[in-house]
Amino acid sequence: MSDFLKKFTSIFVVDEGEGSRKNTKPKTVQSPTIEELSSDSEPVESVVPNVDLTEDMTPKVSKRMTQLLLKAMENNNLKGFDYLEFKQALLSLQNMEMDEETRYKSVLTMSKAMGGTLEQVKQSAGHYLDVLKREYLVFQNTLKKRKATYVEQPLQKAEMLLKEKREKAEKIKKLQEEMTLIDQKVNALNAETQAQEKKIKKAKGDFEATYQHMQKVILLDLKKVDQYLGK
After folding, report:
1. pLDDT of res. 62
2. What span, in angstroms and rounded, lies between the C-alpha atoms of 114 and 111?
3. pLDDT for the residue 37
4. Distance from C-alpha of 173 to C-alpha of 168, rounded to nearest angstrom
5. Which residues contact 16 (CB under 8 A, 6 or more apart)?
6. For 4, which of 74, 120, 159, 188 could close a Cys bridge (C-beta 3.0–4.6 Å)?
7. Positions of the chain with pLDDT under 50
8. What angle do helix axes 63-75 and 3-12 make, rounded to 10 degrees?
9. What is the DSSP string of 32-101?
């Protein structure tokens, strides 16, 4: 972490408990700007850290985001006494027994002693507001890219898969209908072949019985002709 970030992070973020720092060694992190994180060379997910989705999702001031914005302010820092030094001086007096107006006037007096002016404080504050606004727009664009990559595109893919599923379901339904029709035709053919087989068997039996009967009659008559009429 740069000296600038160490110096001015506390202006915007209140440390989360002194006790938790006593047993924890602070990490040194080089915080990139949002522009660096949103460039093509950096993964867009770097800007949106992983979070526990079961935790409170209420928006809150984030130390990580503060340092991202401060990095941009550092890159655009004005020389000399400006708003940031003015704000830091205000915080140094917050525990002293004086009202807010006196505190502001005291800091202005201090700033004049350091060569600063009220106009410098106002102009530099406006300058940093412009820096924050630019970073806000860059961040919005970064989130837009992330949403397109991780929300919109997966949703489109899901819709395509659902469409493919519906199409396959229609094909399956059509195939099932065709298979049912085939089964009906097979059953009809089986029934017809069984009926035809019975008819053929009956015709064969009747023909053979008739043939044998007629043959028997003729042979019997021939026998009687020989018997009664001579050979």
Report:
1. 85
2. 5
3. 47
4. 8
5. 63
6. 74
7. 16-32, 34-35, 37-45
8. 130
9. PPHHHHTSTTS-GGGTS----TTS-------HHHHHHHHHHHHHTPPSSS-HHHHHHHHHHTTTSS--HH
Q: Which two tokens stand for residue 64?
A: 């990580």
CB 63 within 8 A of CB 13: yes
CA distance readout (Å), 219 to 30, 163, 209, 225: 122, 82, 15, 10
Phi, psi of 41 (to 5 degrees): -80, -10
> Per residue in 73-88, pLDDT tens?
989 988 888 998 899 8
Structure tokens at 178: 């065709």
What was the pLDDT predicted at 25? 42
Tokens 């970064």: give the residue.
142
For the chain, the residue count is 231
The one-letter code for the residue type at 88 is: Q
**Which residue in 107, 79, 108 sits closest to 4, CA to CA?**
79
